[in-house]
From TrEMBL:
Pfam families: Cupin_5. Gene3D superfamilies: Jelly Rolls. This is DUF985 domain-containing protein. Residues 11-139 form the DUF985 domain. It comes from Pseudoalteromonas luteoviolacea.
């Protein structure tokens, strides 16, 4: 592991996100709440890294999510839409190569992400309004995804949810 990667890990002190496995750190949770006692907004920093097996397994959210590229190497977001459309978004610093610094993922779209094959690490952020709570998250049954999206079956296998869990632990991010 490079000294840069060790410095990043020491600085951010990431945790492992339950169910999907991404290295993350919550950075903002609005004190203002909606009528249902949920935050009006949240933000987090995450890191993809091959050496630490940090990826985002397939899941969907009940709210839109804005992704931000911050540092490191490019990474791929795989989006599987309810109408069968499949999209790969490359997040990174090189707009001339079609990479995105920021991207909005609509509510209800299956999403997963991983570092580019030759990359060392990527630091990214996710912002949500209304904010993230554990009950807005649903992990995918990857066998069902492979049936619905056969053209990306290999990606579905690679980014399957750990231990077949579909919900965040009770009370997570509440």
């Amino acid at each position: 592991m490079s000294s840069t990667l060790l410095d990043v890990l020491a600085h951010y002190r990431f945790l492992r996100l339950p169910v999907e496995g991404t290295l993350y750190k919550s950075t903002w949770r609005a004190k203002t709440e909606l009528h249902d006692n949920k935050p009006i907004g949240t933000a987090m920093i995450g890191m993809y890294c091959h050496a630490l097996k940090s990826v985002s397994c397939f899941h969907r959210l009940t709210h839109e999510e804005i992704w931000h590229f911050y540092q490191g190497d490019a990474f791929n977001l795989y989006l599987l839409y309810p109408d069968g459309h499949v999209e790969t978004v490359v997040m990174g610093p090189d707009f001339k190569q079609g990479q995105q610094l920021q991207y909005r993922i609509p509510a209800g779209v299956w999403q997963a992400g991983e570092l580019s094959e030759r990359g060392q690490y990527a630091i990214f952020g996710c912002t949500m309004a209304p904010g993230f709570t554990g009950d807005c998250f649903e992990a995918a049954d990857h066998q069902a995804l492979k049936i619905d999206y056969p053209e990306v079956a290999d990606i579905c296998d690679r980014l399957a949810v750990n231990h077949h869990q579909t919900k965040m632990p009770s009370g997570f991010a509440s």
